[in-house]
Every structure is written in C-alpha cells, then in structure tokens.
C-alpha cells in the first residue's frame, strides 16, 4: 500500500506493536519441549549405538545356543509335569544335535569343530564389513 | 574375536555425554528462541483467530513444531518468517474447523454490532486490538493477512479458498467496521 492511499486507519494499524504473550506460555512450551528432549536424548543414544546392540544380541544368541548344548537344562526341568512333554521332545532334538555336532566326524574332526570357527569367522567378518562400510560412508559425507 | 569386533562399535563415553550436553544446549537455545519470538507468534495467532485463549494454544503448537525442526531452524536467518507462516497456517486451520460459523458471518449483509465497552479506552492500542478481535472472522482474517502479514489479495484468496472479489469486499467491510468503531 503506498503512502497516498493511507488513511487514518492504516496509520492506526501501522502503529500497533506485538501483543504481549501470556506469562503461562513459556512454561507450557518448555514443559513439552523438555519432555521431548528427554525422548530425543534416549533415541539419540539408541540410534548411536544401534549396531552395538544388534551385535551384542547376536553374540548373546550364539553364546546362549552353546550354553544350551553344554548345560542341557532339560535335566533340571524334565520332572515338571506341565512342561515335561515339550521338554522331552526338545531334549531328544538337542541330544540328536549334540551327537551330530560332537560325535559325527568329517576329516577326523567333530562337525562342531568345523562349524563353530566358521560361524565365528563369518560373524566377525560381517561385523567388520558393516563397521567399515558405515565409517567409509560417514567419511564420504 | 566377536568381543573385539563388538567393542570397536561402541561409541566412546565422551561422545555419549556429548550427546546429552548437546540436547541440554539445544533446550537452552530453544528457550531463548521462544522468548524472542513468543510475542510475535502470539500476535499473529491472536489477530487471526480473535481469541486469546485459542491463540495461546496455537502459539504453543507452533513452537512445538519449531522444536521438531530446530536443527534446521537454529542457523536459519528466516526463522521469524517461518514462525509467522506456521502461525498463520495453524490459525487459519483452526478457523476452518468452524467453517460453518465463518460462512454464517461472511454472508451477513451488515456486520453485527461490535461492542468494545469492556476495553479501557485510555489505551488506544488496546482499543484497536480489541476492535480487530471483535470483527467477524470473515472480515478480520483477510484484513489481518493483508495489513499485518502483508499478503497480496491473490495470496489471501488462495490461502482462504475464496474468490478475489470476496477478499476485496471482506477487507473493505472490515475496514469500514473498524473505522466505525474507532471513530466513536
């Protein structure tokens, strides 16, 4: 709007300054923001260590599988009536697996002795590759 | 070997605490942004919706959206303009929820009589603000967008989804109503 077209109403409107926001506004906004910041902090931590958590989970699963074969929990729980049948079935499967891995041999070596290093080596290779790719990608950015 | 590979993925402890510090710094920086712009955002909303309570809610919503985009906004020189645009859009959306009322007022041949006797007449600025707030939505919104947001008639028409001629006539009516009140 040019100055010639301005009348007293335009002058009145132009004189107006910003209204004062209510005193309650800032605390209200910051309350929500602090809650969101807490969530953001947690998600940043989880996001930043996502690969670590994944790796730990897989490593734990491998260790748990090994422990399952060695400890054989069936011997402690086999007498509980409700879980007896499925546990017995699991026991048979575990025993079969144990026999297969420990007593069957290829090139005079137990199957476990061949599979275990292969599993560990491939898992380590996978972790190392993923880490390298991520770092290279970060450098390229 | 697995442990070694796993350990290589861990972030150093100082990097984690650095993340926490960064969030705290962000909150502090955001608080100062709210302090700087709260009056401006509140004014935009209050003038468009014409209700101080609703304007406070809309202002809060604007700043929460701003916090979600704070990383982009923090170093932007157009943060004020961005906040103004978001406040305008949210305020118009708020009014659109009461579209029926909007139509009712916009179809009135003669605007309803506006009483502002509850405003202390000693303060001229308060009087003008109260008069603007009490205008019918259909007149107040285009008038505010034109005078305070410096939008063109075309922009107002496309933002409100109404015709260009209606924008012009609503602004004209709004101005006449304001003049009538303020010259009393």
Describe, in plain words, how this protein is organized in 3D:
The complex is a heterodimer of chains A (141) and B (184). By secondary structure, chain A is mostly helical. In chain A, 79% of the residues lie in helices and 3% in strands. Chain A has six helices and two strands, in the order αααααββα. The mean pLDDT of chain A is 82. Chain B is mainly α. Chain B has two domains: 17-100, RNA polymerase sigma factor, region 2, helix turn helix motif (Rna Polymerase Sigma Factor, Chain: A, Orthogonal Bundle), CATH 1.10.1740.10; 114-184, Orthogonal Bundle (Arc Repressor Mutant, subunit A). In chain B, α2 crosses α8 (137-147) and α8 packs across α10. The relative contact order of chain B is 0.09. Chain A binds chain B through residues 9-10, 12-13, 15-22, 24-26, 28-30, 32-34, 36-37, 40-41, 44-45, 48-49, 51-52, 55-56, 59, 62, 120-121, 123-124, 127-128, 131, and chain B through 1-3, 5-6, 8-11, 15-16, 19-20, 23-24, 26-27, 30-31, 34-35, 38-43, 46-47, 52, 56, 59-60, 63-64, 67-68, 124-125, 128-129, 147-148, 175, 178-179, 182.
